[in-house]
Amino acid sequence: MSQVSIHDSIKKTIVFFVGDYLGHIYAVVGAAKKMLDLGFDVKFFTIGSEDKIRQMGFDAIVVPEFDEPDFKVLPKMSRSREIDLWLNKVNECIERVMADIKPDLIIFDPFLLMFYPYFWRLGVRCASFSSKPLIESDPLVPPFHSDLIPQYTKLGIARIRYEWAKQKLGYFLYRFQCLVSELMTGISHRTVMLRIAENVGFPIKDEYRVRYFSYDMCFNSVPELLFQAKEFDFPRKSYREGHSFFVGPCIVDAITSSKGFAFPEGDGPLIYCHLGTVATQFDSEKLKLYECVINAVEDNESLRLVVSTCHELATELLKAKRKKICKRISINTSVPQHNILSKSSLLVTHGGGTSIKEAIHHGVPMLAFPRHADQPGSVARLVFHGLGERIRVVSTKSVSRLIEKVVGDERYKTAVLKMRDNFELYNSNGVIDKVLKEIIDFQ
After folding, report:
1. Distance (Å, rounded) from C-alpha 160 to C-alpha 8?
2. Checking CA distances to 26, which of 32, 48, 225, 283 falls within 20 to 30 Å?
3. Are 93 and 66 a contacting pair, CB within 8 Å?
4. Number of domains in the chain
């Protein structure tokens, strides 16, 4: 496909506005690289992730003014004034940077959309991104973080309704807690968003779209880019056309030289076990699963294993617990992931969105051990489409049985390859290119 040059000769500038949550950084880098390939100028505004972004080859503009102070430690009588002083600095920063860069599109981390009204006031075109399944409620789809796999029977539909009833009750309790917090302390989770909207005259009641998740923020005038394939979602009764856009998984095939990495000995099926890149989310349960996978492969001489912990202490603990060296097993803190996946027969994963997409990209079935956030919902979709199985019991016997089941049944591989074909259509049809043109040109 030829490179984009919207309006023929004018190079458009797209800016990602992201915080310090690594899961979101990893989710957008593939899309950012595709935008570069399409001829866009791509930059990042960031609060605390500049080193990681620069390592990935992008310009990172640090905006420390957006780092929210802890207002709760201040005396109650001074909190409102301090919030206004902070927001004045944020507003001045936005006006200065917008005048300097003049972006054609800002793509928000959804956790930072509370700042959108300032950009709205300046007439800057904005969108948000999502690394999660589509959050919009639907009578055929459970809440996105639910592990329920829908069944389209009367009982199955009733279970979906029950899941949504629990979700909505939780959301209304959250809103009540915010109200109580405002009355008692003068501040809540929603304070900054509401204060900004008030300051710039943003029509928050008309704009704010309730989707029944406390950490979700969605505005009617901000299109949502979903870095996922529609085909990976559950079947839906309806979609919100013109607002939520599936632009494809946006995976960049980053296979590089694996010189210096020693693959395990043997020629049997290769298992790759990786339970997430966020070291702060490491705990004893993850360590136990790593041990179970290692034991399962150790007991099956036909298998090989590469482990990547992203946690130096975990790597040392796992190595120390081995009573003997098994040359079919390689335990590491980090590995060239795309290289490993390209040679793997199975991925054992925590169910993170990026890991699932990369496994599908390389045609690799999965075993998944979801823990929190969008992981249970993503894994439910994985199982629904026959791309793998969920680990429910963390034991060597259970894990061994599941490995043999998925590796030994070609139907999982066939389903993954079919989903990969769906992924590829987003590239061959230039979907992200068309969506960006529509958003930027819509004034």
Report:
1. 48
2. 283
3. yes
4. 2
